[in-house]
Amino acid sequence: MKTSVLFKGCLLVVLCFMVLSYGTRVKAAEPPIPIGILGPFTGSLAFNAEEMKKGMMLAVDEINAKGGLWGRKVELIFGDTEAKPDKGVAVVKKLITRDKVLVVGGGYASSVNIATSEVCQNEKTPIVVAIAISPTITSRGFDYVFRTSPNSPQFLAGVNDWLEKVKKPKTVAFLMENTDYGRDGEKIWLALSKKIGAQELAHLYFEIGDTDFTTQISKLRELKPEVTFNIASTTEAALIQKQAKELNFVTQWIGVGGQFTEAYFKMAGTTCQYAMGSSLEPTLAMKNPIVADFVKRYEAKYQKARPGIFSSQGYDNIMVIMDAIKRAEKLTGDLPADRNRIRDALTKTSIELTQGKIEFDKTGQVYTVTPSPVQVQLVDGKPQLFIIYPPARAGATYQVPLPWDKR
Amino acid sequence: MESLFLQQVLNGLIVGSVYCLIAIGLTMIFGVMRISNFAHGDFSMLGAYFAIYFVLFLSGWAGWVGSLVVAAVGVGLIGFFVERFLFRPLLTRWTDIDIIMLSIGLFILLENGARLFFGATPEMIPDPFQSKTINFLLFSTSEIRLICLLFSCIAIFLLQLFLTKTKTGVAIRATSQNRNAAALMGINISFIYSLTFVVGSALAGLGGVLYGTIFAVFPMMGAMPTLKAFAVTILGGMGNIRGAVFGGFILGVAETLGGNYVSMQYKNAIGFVIVILVLLVIPQGLFGGREKKWG
Amino acid sequence: MNRKPLKSLFIILGILIVLALPLIIRDRYFQHLLVLSGIFILLTSSWNLLAGYSGLLNLGHAAFFGIGGYSSALLALKLNLSPWVGLPLGGAIASLFGILLGIPSFRLSGPYLAITTIGFCEILRLVAMNWVSLTRGSLGLYGIPPLTPLNFSTNFSIKFVSEQNAYYVILIFVSLTLILLNRLVHSEFGIGLKSIREDELGSQSIGIDTSRYKLTVFMISAFLAGFAGSFYAHYVRLISPEMMGLSETFNILTMVMVGGLGTLFGPVVGAILLTFLSEGLRFLEDFVKIDIRFVIYGGLLMATILFMRNGIVGLFKEVAKPKESNGR
Q: I want to staple A150 with a disulfide (CB 3.0 to 4.6 A). Which of A154, A337, B12, C306 is the partner?
């Protein structure tokens, strides 16, 4: 008898709590225009996600200062994916069902965004992905999924062109992040290696969050590859460069380029000299007036902080979204109808931003942005990125990596 | 001409030495107080963060050595309070499970608190040598890693001296073997408990600084070392310090050799596989004695 | 006793509320939290069976959850197996792995068992991460089909994609589980488990085959957790190696301890409370601007062990207990 009274009492307490804790969150119809933003705001990628956020806030604050859209302020609601697919799915569902966002933006990790974009497709909410480069995201016939960043074949086209026509390595090795980001890039470079007849010496992997690469690097040192493809995020990439020096390993490192952030240069110091990648770094394209203006406004808002690739991609991402909302015209408050109208507006996007012109093809993939191959070279002892190919756009010539004792 | 095998062995010894320090602390605490502290690795993490902040004041060599001292003292102090106010009240009241649960709660608290406080982005403890490398004929490594290995060995040696040659050290070992007999001989058990926990935590803090120097410092860095420290302690026999030293080096080398010749991706599993195999055959560990009873 | 009709009224009211909840509060996110609570109740109850009733500290419980989820998902994706079949099948496969963990528990206890279970879970998580051809690695399995609709006639069928319908399905399973666990715990087997928890040597001396008991309870517990995993896979329609991480197990553990270890309703209370607390705390984030949820979790767990050892249900029991006389 006592147990059932207990049970009822417990149940009552729990129910009260549920309603109380939940009720405080449910608000009346919000005047602001809600846009959901996904990103790995905690974890080892947090710094870069913050960069993306800063780029976005630059755009949003400017629009809101001018009165927002039709007098309504644009509100970004951030969802932390922790770079994990399951957290990403949970948080995007929340943004859609509870925060009732009109569009989802942001992104970053390929593994996460493959899953979250599927959720958005099922929920008929347009999603505009930034940064994540896995081709899968826009190749499933999902008409609610768009991407403002190049996919991996597009991203690597510049570097691969250079590899095929200029460098022509005889031996290659792979040191990849064990995620879709890593494995997708691996596939592309594998195909390239076969095409140019390079011998594959090793396929090695590591996890996001690993800090010890000495085993892998020791192995690579034994094999002496001319080129080592290394897809890694900021922290891991920097540690790999450091540990390569500690173990006296020299190779031409080629990555995607997303790792070349301020945090990377701080961590790696001069050990990242000669590393290469593909880049959309805004500061490399200062000849473009749109880019120069963006950099100026960014530095003004954030006290001399230089914008990196994540800031400019975040900025472009939000600008595209807000542009589409504007073109969708008045929002009726009927959520499904509004979302559909925004989706339709997105397909007709054509706007000049920091990466160049943004237009989407039939699959929702931007096709008008072209990254260039870059190399880290030392200027007065400080590492800097230079475009090294094609000659028309190059800012410096390619340097072959020297052994450590000669640097 | 380099030898990959010897290189990996050296890599393993370096990592293993850090495991040793952390594991010794864990096994001492378990041996004396029967506390399985799942937050032990987080003490290493705190030590590493002490170092990060200390070197902001003092850089270069003095900074690095100083940060070791600061970490040891700082974490030791934290350990003192944790033992006194969290674990001590439980020791007489509850069961094994409760102590483990409490330490898990502490682990969750510390790890996430650190994330909040320090931010999730990994940081580096600056290398006073600036990543200079030493090249031996058959293998190479950075100078700082060698120093870490040396430091660990010296610390282990000093600890052994302390435990065998000093009165307090012997008292600790006595309490570890048989608490009641030790009490009857006039040893102040309360003092021994505090001291053991403080020393054990300080060792973890030192291990954290070394770990952070060799690799990187971030709030979640405590989890793996905790598990590996447990693996090492079980391998060596819980409560057995010599076992922990052997176990630490064995695990370090097993990981690098296993990662190199067997599989890179399952490197972290090697420790667990070894533990499970050992426990199935020798439940008390390679060097453990009979199950100790509390008189 | 004039308490009886009032008590029955409460029970009926309670059941009605539970049944009608998603119809009263139509917010989809709220309903989603209800479903999650249900899944967690299965997980907490099964973990409690091991730790609370049998004294077996299993820190690798997330492994069973993951095995059930991956099994059911793979069977549905690769063999087109109906998810309804996948649910018990996932549980059964997890149960087999339960045997793997049961065996070491014969000789190991306390921290030794704890580390073995953690090791077991970590190894399986690494397998899920690295056997990319099977599990797609860290990408996880997405596009998992939901529970197949029940077709009653050409016009009328019940689909199980919505949170509301999922709630009713999990409600059925949770009720069944609680009823069965209640009978189990009060049966001879259950009493045997408790005696093993209290004094293993003593139990053996009175003829209880402790090995067989431990093996059985591991299998039952694993089955339930695997079942929960399969349901999760077909509800969220994504499963990844993260689900088998240590923090997932710690989550379950915190729920049980806060709710009340070793009781029937402790896990229920803990699961529901912490699932909603997690959400309720988000609004705190708007004020404090940082995510303090897990810090609170850790603090809550520690406070429970130190001050409220028997959890919320334990508190209730103390309050409801009639004042005992001082004589023995």
A: A154
Number of other CB atoms surrounding residue A402 within 10 Å: 11
Task: Kindly report which listed range (A14-23, B207-216, C78-87) carries the lowest average pLDDT score.
Answer: A14-23
- A25 CB neighbours in chain C (<8 A) are 279-280, 282-283
Could you tell me which chain A residue has the CA closest to the CA of C12?
A8
B230 at the C interface (CB within 8 A)?
yes
Choosing among 3.40.50.720, 3.40.50.2000, 1.10.290.10, 3.40.50.2300, the CATH entry for A153-279+372-406 is 3.40.50.2300
pLDDT at B290: 45
CB A243 within 8 A of CB A264: no
What was the ipTM of the complex prediction?
0.86
- C29 contacts in chain A (CB < 8 Å): 93-94, 97-98
Residue C187's region, left for phi above 0, alpha for psi from -120 to 50, else beta, is beta
Tokens found for residue A236: 């891991």
Interface partners of chain B (CB pairs < 8 Å, 3 or more) are A, C
Segment B75-97, tens digit of pLDDT: 999 999 999 988 888 887 767 78
User: In whole angstroms, what is the distance from residue C156 CA to residue C138 CA?
Assistant: 39
C19 Cα to chain A: minimum distance (Å): 13
Distance CA(A106)–CA(A340), nearest Å, equals 19
Q: Does the distance separating the beta carbons of B230 and C298 come in below 8 Å?
A: no
Taking residue C15's Cβ as centre, other Cβ atoms within 10 Å add up to: 12
Rg (chain A; Cα; Å): 23
**Number of Cα atoms under 13 Å in the Cβ half of residue A261:** 23
Q: Say how many CA atoms lie within 13 Å of B150 toward its Cβ.
A: 6
DSSP codes, C131-142: -HHHH-GGG-EE
The answer to whether the A33-150+288-359 and A153-279+372-406 domains have the same CATH topology is yes
Separation of first and last alpha carbons in chain C = 28
User: At C77, which amino acid appears?
Assistant: L
CATH 3.40.1160.10 corresponds to the domain A33-150+288-359: no
Chain mean position to CA C301: 17
Q: Do B122 and A44 touch (CB under 8 A)?
A: yes
With beta carbons less than 8 A apart as the criterion, state whether C108 and C59 touch: no
Q: CA-CA distance, C327 to B8, in Å (whole number)?
A: 70
Residue A348 pLDDT exceeds 70: yes
pLDDT of residue A7: 60
pLDDT digit string (tens) for C269-308? 999 999 888 877 766 665 555 567 788 889 999 998 888 8
Interchain CB contact of A83 with B (< 8 Å): no
Q: What residues does each domain of chain A span?
A: 33-150+288-359, 153-279+372-406
- pLDDT (average), residues C17-43: 87
- At residue A277, the 3 state secondary structure works out as strand
